[in-house]
């Protein structure tokens, strides 16, 4: 199975007040909410760059903390990425349970598919 089908990923465009918005739907509302914040190619590319930097470094190096504009947080590890709804809760207690976690390699592929959907508006499949 592909990563997109494993996570039941689908993309859609919804018109709200005469403006088209792009959405992702998956097995995790937390994943959907975080990726919705990356609504343009520049933001997707920045996230992919951080993911690639983390994957290319030694497994024992520190995780990367990536705060979104909506103050959600992505903790990108070498093998696991954790999603948090509130950066302030994490800052107060770094041992707090993440809202969702998935393999970093899977997260990278999902972000790439989302970026592709944002860019050309197809199903997100990479050609």
Keywords:
127 residues, alpha+beta, two-stranded antiparallel ribbon, 40% helix, 24% strand
Describe the protein's architecture and organization.
The protein has helices at 3-6, 29-36, 41-56, 87-92, 104-120, and strands at 10-16, 19-25, 64-67, 73-76, 80-84, 100-103. The chain is globular, with a radius of gyration of 14 Å. Helix 3 runs antiparallel to helix 5. Helix content is 40%, strand content 24%. It has 127 residues and is an alpha+beta fold. The chain has a 4-stranded antiparallel sheet. The protein has a two-stranded antiparallel ribbon with strand order 1-2. The two termini are 17 Å apart.
Compact overview of the structure:
This protein has 127 residues and is α+β, with helices and mostly antiparallel strands.
Per-chain topology:
Elements: H1 3-6, E1 10-16, E2 19-25, H2 29-36, H3 41-56, E3 64-67, E4 73-76, E5 80-84, H4 87-92, E6 100-103, H5 104-120
Antiparallel strand pairs: 1-2, 3-4, 4-5, 5-6
Helix pairs in contact: 3-5
DSSP strand content: 15-25%
Radius of gyration: 14 Å
- General form: globular
Which strand order do you get reading across the main beta sheet?
Answer: 3-4-5-6
How many helices? The count is: 5
Runs in which pLDDT lies below 50 for 5 or more consecutive residues are: none
Mean pLDDT: 90
- H and E string: HEEHHEEEHEH
Termini distance? 17 Å
Tell me about the biggest sheet?
A: 4 strands, antiparallel
Count of DSSP strands: 6
């Amino acid at each position: 199975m592909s990563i997109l089908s494993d996570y039941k990923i689908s993309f859609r465009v919804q018109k709200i007040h005469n403006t088209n918005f792009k959405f992702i739907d998956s097995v995790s509302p937390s994943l959907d909410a975080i990726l919705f914040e990356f609504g343009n190619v520049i933001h997707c590319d920045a996230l992919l760059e951080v993911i690639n930097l983390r994957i290319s470094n030694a497994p024992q190096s520190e995780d990367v903390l990536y705060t979104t504009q909506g103050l959600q947080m992505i903790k990108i590890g070498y093998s696991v990425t954790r999603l948090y709804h509130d950066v302030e809760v994490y800052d107060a207690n770094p041992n707090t349970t993440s809202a969702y976690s998935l393999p970093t390699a899977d997260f990278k592929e999902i972000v790439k598919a989302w970026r592709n959907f944002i860019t050309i508006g197809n199903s997100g499949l990479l050609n």
